[in-house]
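help with this:

***
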Amino acid sequence: MATTNPLQFIQQVRSEVSKVVWPTRREVLLTTVMVFIMAALTAVFFAIVDILIRGGLEMVLTTFG
């Protein structure tokens, strides 16, 4: 493996960072909103599943208990 001195390394890092396509403010905002929406939908889904499982379990326990 070839070794590079710290100055060359910093120059290489700067050239690679300049190639990065950074997202726009609007893209960041939209993806953030989508993450919050998906998290809320997931929370609602699991809350409904939890309520259904709890109700079914209580029905089974009261019927056979």
